[in-house]
From TrEMBL:
Domain of life where this protein originates: Eukaryota
Identification of the protein by name: F-box domain-containing protein
Length: 496
């Protein structure tokens, strides 16, 4: 690594752009490594989740270094940082920056003064300077913003290049009207809905976009809606169907017919994520089964019916790589009798192996019948790209079959698991006896190291821990964890 040239190092470090710890370590290796990693570290320096910005006074010092002499005097007179504010900087840090995160910047300037006026004054001067200094603005997270940055003289040139915008609906509509004059080529728009009324400015901002590809909407409020915001938002969004390829929505309340009509129009989607129960009206099911996404690669639809997911799979263009849902939240479990669910789950397995040759991540649920296990094994044999599997059985509390189910699953995996399989998440309806687990791990030897995540506390017993540690040491197991249920299914959120 020490002999790599700067261009090669830059490509390597770019892969670490979301990993602040690794980038900080690179700073210490050599001057070349430092010079190469600083531009990447400062491209979006406000977004690292593992950094506590409330105690990073050096960031405050760096930011104030860019302010005018009058502002520095104002700061030093009130904050007593005169010995460090005037220090010269080793790098022109803000020349590398392409982002604004309002919340983080507010936190950093709070280090200098707790007084609202002082903080506002320093932030205003910073944004004014940033608009002059920044070559282009790519990322803007403006939750809680109080500064009308689009009025700065250089704002038009900076905002025209905006790629990603994150905001919430508490911001006044007039602010979005101002942004919509300049920000018309946003490709990624993330909206947190914390208001119970329509924000018409957000609707306008969506309407003016000319190349919107990624849209996220998340409801985050407790009160009842005063006005229904979804109708205007989704009608504006439907007009972006020619470019939109990523849709993620987490609605608190939504009209089922409205989302159904919108989904039919989003024919270019590659990623569809819906957190929440949307489809209930029986008369709508037939139309929903006709939804076709020929470029779809990821589908994650929580609290839904297997038949609906199966239909989307069947109508896809055989590009699906991830099919994710929380198995215990499938509607069929509560609304269908055993016969209906058995039929529905069998159909789901078949639709996967008939239509998803490239599937990599899969959630699956079925009863422990011989026919279902046969079809499941057929899926494993056909879907050779499968990397990760979350598998749950629905047995109507037949606890006495759990160990038998576990033994059957392990036998199937030994016989037919794809060579790419690296992770399994079996529900607690599968119990692995010490003997069957040891036999499985011994036969798995020589294959790709396997990660196993369970929700059964039996595996924290001393005899199991001893066995697991042995095969970890041999490189057969990469990871074996007993998880809380919420962490067990979090995989569905992370993988999307």
């Amino acid at each position: 690594m020490s002999n790599l040239n700067k261009d090669t190092l830059f490509l390597v470090f770019k892969e670490l752009q979301d990993d602040s710890k690794s980038l900080f370590s690179c700073l210490m290796v050599s001057r070349l490594w430092c010079d190469t990693s600083i531009p990447i570290l400062w491209r979006n320096p406000w977004s690292y989740s593992d950094i506590n910005y409330t105690n990073k006074s050096y960031l405050f010092i760096i930011l104030t270094r860019y302010l005018s002499d009058d502002i520095k005097k104002f700061i030093t007179e009130r904050i007593h940082l005169d010995s460090v504010v005037v220090k010269s900087l080793q790098f022109d840090y803000l020349s590398f920056c392409r982002s604004i995160n309002v919340d983080t910047i507010n936190i950093i300037f709070s280090i200098g003064s707790p007084l609202a006026y002082n903080k506002f004054f320093m932030q205003q001067e910073f944004y004014s300077f940033f608009m002059r200094k920044c070559p282009e603005l790519k990322y803007l997270d403006m939750s809680s913003i109080k500064h009308q940055i689009f009025y700065f003289p250089e704002a038009k040139a900076r905002l025209e290049s905006l790629y990603e915008l994150k905001c919430d609906t508490s911001i006044d509509s007039s602010y979005f009207y101002g942004l919509s004059q300049f920000c018309q080529y946003i490709q990624k728009l993330i909206i947190i809905n914390i208001d119970t009324k329509i924000n018409h400015g957000i609707v306008k901002l969506i309407e003016v976009q000319k190349n919107l590809k990624h849209f996220e909407w998340k409801d985050d409020f407790d009160d009842d809606l005063i006005e229904n915001p979804y109708k205007e938002v989704f009608r504006a969004l439907e007009k972006k169907a020619n470019s939109l390829n990523y849709l993620k929505i987490r609605p608190f309340y939504i009209e089922y017919r409205l989302i159904q009509e919108a989904l039919i129009n989003f024919y270019k989607l590659k990623v569809l994520v819906i957190d929440g129960y949307l489809f209930i009206a029986e008369e709508q099911l037939e139309q929903l089964r006709m939804i076709a996404y020929h470029e779809l690669e990821v589908i994650k639809v929580d609290y839904n019916q297997l038949d609906i997911i199966s239909s989307i799979i069947e109508n896809s263009g055989r590009c699906l790589k991830k099919i994710l849902f929380k198995p215990y939240d499938i509607v069929d479990l509560d609304d269908f009798d055993d016969v209906d669910f058995n039929k529905s789950s069998l159909n789901f397995i078949r639709k996967v192996y008939e239509n998803c040759p490239y599937i990599e991540y899969l959630s699956i649920i079925f009863p422990s019948s011989k026919e279902h296990f046969i079809e499941f094994e057929k899926l494993l044999k056909i879907c050779q790209n499968l990397k990760s599997l979350l598998i749950v059985l629905w047995n109507r509390d037949e606890v006495e079959t759990y160990e038998k189910n576990g033994e059957e699953l392990l036998k199937i995996l030994i016989r037919s698991a794809p060579t790419n399989l690296k992770e399994i998440r079996p529900g607690d309806e599968f119990k692995f006896s010490l003997e069957s687990l040891e036999d499985f791990l011994e036969k798995w030897r020589g294959r790709r190291a396997l990660s196993i995540f369970t929700i059964d506390p039996i595996y924290i017993r001393e005899d199991y821990k001893k066995l697991i540690d042995k095969y970890k040491g041999d490189g057969v197991i990469k990871n074996f964890e007993n998880l809380h249920y919420l962490d067990f299914i979090k995989y569905c959120d992370n993988a999307s």
